[in-house]
Structures are given as structure tokens and as C-alpha cells.
Amino acid sequence: MANNKSQVLLAQTGMVLWEVCVLFLAVLSVCECEGPGLVDAVSERRAEESHRQNSAIALLFTLLLTATILTTWLFKHHRLRLLHETGLAMIYGLLMGVILRFGVHVQPDLIDAPLTCVFNSSPRSLLLNISGRLFEYTLSGEASDTPREDAPNSQILKKVTFDPEVFFNILLPPIIFHAGYSLKRRYFFRNLGSILSYAFVGTVISSFVIGLVMYGFVACMSAVGQLGGDFFFTDCLFFGAIISATDPVTVLAIFNDLKVDVDLYALLLGESVLNDAVAIVLSSSIVAYQPSGSSSHSFEGEAILVSLGVFLGVLSGSLVLGTATGFITALVTKLTRLRNFPLLETTLFFLMSWSTFLLAEACNITGVVAVLFCGITQAHYTRSNLSAESKKRTEELSELLNFLAESFIFSYMGLTLFSYQNHVFNPAFISGSFLAILLGRAANIYPLSFLLNLGRSNRISNNFQHVMMFAGLRGAMAFALSIRDTSTYARQMMFSTTLLIVFFTVWVFGGGTTPVLSKMNIRYEHTHTNIHACSLFHMEHAAWPIRLWYKFDHNYLKPLLTHSGPPLSGSLPACCAPVARCLASSQEYKSVQQPHDDDSELILNEGSSLLYSDLLISSDDPSSGQAEMTEDTPAPTQEPIQPLAQSLSESLRLRL
Asked: Where does the signal peptide begin and end (predicted)?
């Protein structure tokens, strides 16, 4: 009996164990089946969290720009010229960087775990097998061997750190294009030779002077043990090239508000536009310096010649490509009736301009430089073919994109001072950099001004030279070139130093522009007189290259690419008559003998000394003969204007 009970108990126990085992296996199978689902849920949550953080970062920069705009309006309303909007954007960026680094605490992602594997090179992407599923990871950049404990919120700081190519390929092209497109000024041609000398010869001189001075500082720092890594002579030359890119946007804005002397404004504007192109190409040429020996930084004449060839090839290729795209756009707008559809015309204009950048990058030359020359060509030829509505749209949209891109870059500069986690601040290198840029700027301005004055009837005065020396600010271009590559110790030190130089020059030099103008007795005014006071320029008084260019442009390029100028049948040989008829404009010429050409013909007389405000009326709109009055603009007095206007009209009537 007892034996039967024990057998029954044993059987029941076996049944319970069997049910427990079956239940356990069922749970395992369910967990195994739900594994991929759980992985998908985790991935989806991560994607949603990343999207939320990206939206918050975009909102952050939008609020920064909004605050900058409102503060700029406040400064302009109260006529405060102590700080430009770029300086305000940098201040707001600094404040936001402090808040993100020290005021916001984000829980780190505990799932992230470093894995170690050895490769001979850095793969662009990796495929990882995790629980039987393949996941692709792309290369983001080099990370430090140990996590940085002195940088709180490192994950969110990485989020607000953008890819450097975003600045160089997306934000810089609108700025450079606007600089070229807004260069359509009559007084630019008057100082063309001086502008080209400062922009090309002066930038090269400044680059090498800065490089040599910094090489001396680096050698001294290495001797006393103040360097934490390699810093070669080519690195010094590269630093000299990128820091020679001037961006006096603050000074030019103040010049515009104060209506300073037109020659001074033209010299600074032209130099700042063109020397960006030289700085980009020169830095690329220095990077291309590759000696054949074991040391990649040794001196070798053949490698120098190769770098020189790269410099000339990239610069000339960018110039030809940008100019050719402008010519094509001018022909398309001339030979078609797109002007009847302003929206299509404006869209085609910007698409052709943007394609210049893409084509240049595809051809392995610098797209930013090509966009600059494209903008200059578009302003000189294509703009005259556009309808009145398209002209207004292109100018306003170009100015808007330039303002947004520039404000964003300067805001990001302030933010980067705290968000970038690999800064290398060396007091000796920073001090030497400030001394080097002053010496480089002086070697650019004073010797070239002395040589240029030997052939100029309208001499560049010493006060003008001092103001040009003072106005050599650094800005968006120097920042973009320095942040593009921060992989080595030398490049990280260059980037940190460039950031401080931009801060100092924008805040100190930009804020001190008005006192310097008063100290140097530079003539300016506070009223918006807006007088159309220009005189016809006699080409026999111009330099012979300008005369040759004017004749070629007047007789061939203008008639070929625009609706103005004499008919091509009168300029081309008789055998080219069919080609001339094919390329003839569909519109009648308004003036055959004296076509309207505000870029080449209406240039300031050498004997005149006008203010910037005297040229604010565009010759494309002769009816706008009265200044636009706003609530912040005081009404000008009319008595002194009448005799000048009468004398000008009498002079023009006698000439005609």
C-alpha cells in the first residue's frame, strides 16, 4: 500500500516537472521569437530620440539667429555702432555654448560600449553581426583613446558639432556668390589695378610673412619644450595662408552706415572679396606639397614647382569655369523669353550659379572660387538681361542667403569655443600669431601702396593705408579653412588660435572703426544725401589694360551676351554675318552709339572725390532721384544740393 502511494506521488512529481520544463521551453521560445522585435523597438526609440535632439538643435540655432536679428535692430534703431551683427551672433553663440557645456546635464547612453579591433586603415563603414542581424556603422572621425572626463555632456556637444564640409560646401558658397554678385560697382573699375595687387600679390606676401614668423616662434617653442606634438614648416605656411583671408564685414557695414569715402570702401571691398579665393587656392597648394624623399616636410624644389603649378591651375581653372557658366547663363537669358516668366528666370539663375560649384568640385578644383567668379560674371552680363522683377528677386534672395549663412557661421564660432572638445590653446603660439598677422598685414599694405602710388594720379593717402591696415579683420573664411581638418596636433592648435583671432578682430577692431576714422580724418557723413553725382570717364585717361578690356567688352562681349551694345554685325568681319544675325538680340538697342553700361563707362572721374552715399542710386533706375526716407533717417537739407545738381546737369548736357 505504501509502495503504491509512493509510486503515485512520484508520478505526480514527474508530471509537475514535465509541465515546468514545457513551460520553461515555451518561455524560451517566446523570448527567442520576440528578440528581433525587441531590437527593432530599441532601434526605433533611438531614432526617435535622435530626431528629437536634432530638432532641438535646429531650434537652438534658429533662436540664436532670431535673437541676433532683434538685437541688431535695437542697435540700429538707437544708432549704436559699437558692435556689428556678426559680433552679436558670436556673443550669443558663446552664451549658448556655456549653457550646453555646464548648464545642461544629459544622462549618458550606457548601451554604448567600445570594441577593439585592428585594421591597417580606417574603413569608411563597418558591418557588424549582432545576434544574427547585420548593422552598418559609418566613420564619424577619430576618437581619443580615453574618454574626456573634463568635458561634461560630451554627447550633446558632439551633436551640436557639425561636419566641417557643411560649412565649406553649403554655407560658404552663398556668401562668396553674394560677394561677387554685389561687386557690380562703377568705382570698382576705377581702383581695379590696386584691388588686384592687394588681393593677389599682397595675400601671397602676407601668407609667407606669417608663415616665416610663426616658424621662428615654433622653433623657439620646441627648444623650450612648449610643443606637445609635431609642427612643421608646411604647417606654418598653411596657417599663414588660411589666416591671410580677410573678412572686414564689420568695417564695411560701418563704412556703409557712415557713407565714407568711396575709394577707401572700394579698396577694402575688392580686396576682401578676391583674397578669399587666393587664400583657398594657396592653402590647397600647400597641402599638395609632397616631396619624393622619406620626409614629407623637407624642402624640395621640384615639389615646390608642383605646388606652384597646382596653385596656378586651380586658380585659372576656377576662373575659367565660373566665367564660362556666367556666359552660358547670359546667353540663355538673352536668347530665350524667360523674362516673361520671372519665377522661372530667377530659378534658372540660381540653379546655373549653384551648378558652377558642383561642376568645379566634380572637376577637382575649388567650387567656392568658381562661384566667386561666376557671381562677378552674372552681375556684369546676366543681370542686364533679367526682367525688373527678377533683378529685384535675385538681389534680395542673394542678400538674404548671405546674411543667414554668415550669421549662422558666426553664431557657430561662439558655440564652438565650448562645444569643440579637442582645443589646444598655447599662449606662446597665440601671442606669436597676433604679432605675425600684424606684420603680414603691414607687409601687404604699406609696400604695395608705395608702389601703386607711383602710377596713380589719385594717390592712396597715408590715412587710407592706416585704416586698411586696421581693417584687416578675420572671419568666416579663415574659420572654415581652419575647421576643415583638425586631425593633428598642429591643425587643432591652428583652429583654436584662429577662433581667438576672429573673436579679437571682430570685437576690438570692428568696434573701434568709428574712432579710428575720426582720428585719421577720413571724410564721412551722417546724412543720406543720395545724390547721383558721377561724371563720364574718358577712357584715354585710363591705363592701357583697362582701355583694351573696355574696347573688347564694349564691342564684342556686351553685344554677344546682353541686349546692349553695338550690333555684332558692325564689330565682326563680314564673313561672320550669319553668326552675328543668329546671336542678335530680339530687343532693339536703346542706344547704338553710346550704350548703357554702368560698369565700364560711368566710372568716377580721377579728379572727383565723392562719398559712398553719392553712388547709392543705380544707373539702371534713373528715375530714383530722391532718397528713400525712413523714420530713422533725418531729412537732408535741400539748399546745398540744388546748385550741385544744376551744375551736373549742365555739364552732362554740354558733353552730350
From this structure: 1-33
- Find where cell 572679396 sits: 273
* CA angle (388, 179, 417) in 5-degree steps: 135
Backbone angles phi, psi at 611, to 5 degrees: -95, 165
Closest Cα to residue 465, out of 489, 486, 495, 444? Answer: 444
What global pTM score does this model have?
Answer: 0.75
Instruction: Output the CA–CA distances (angstroms, integers) from residue 225 to 204, 212, 214, 218, 629, in the order listed.
Output: 31, 20, 16, 10, 63
Cα–Cα distance measured from residue 405 to residue 357, given in angstroms and rounded to the nearest whole number? 16
Beta bridge partners of 125: 138
Would you tell me the crossing angle of helices 462-470 and 427-453 to the nearest 10 degrees?
Answer: 150
Residue 133's H or E segment, with its range, is: strand 133-138
Within a 10 A sphere around the Cβ of 372, how many other Cβ atoms?
A: 29
Tallying the residues shown for the chain, one arrives at: 656
Residue position matching grid coordinates 557657430: 412
Tens of pLDDT, residue by residue over 177-211, are: 988 888 755 667 778 888 889 989 999 999 999 99
The helix (H) or strand (E) run that includes residue 58 is helix 2-77
Partners of residue 137 on adjacent β-strands: 126
Residues 6+ apart with CB under 8 A from 87: 250, 410, 506, 507, 510, 511
* DSSP-assigned beta bridge partners for residue 136: 127
238-288 confidence digits (pLDDT tens): 999 999 988 866 677 767 766 777 788 888 888 888 888 888 888 888 887
Tell me the residue type at 191: N
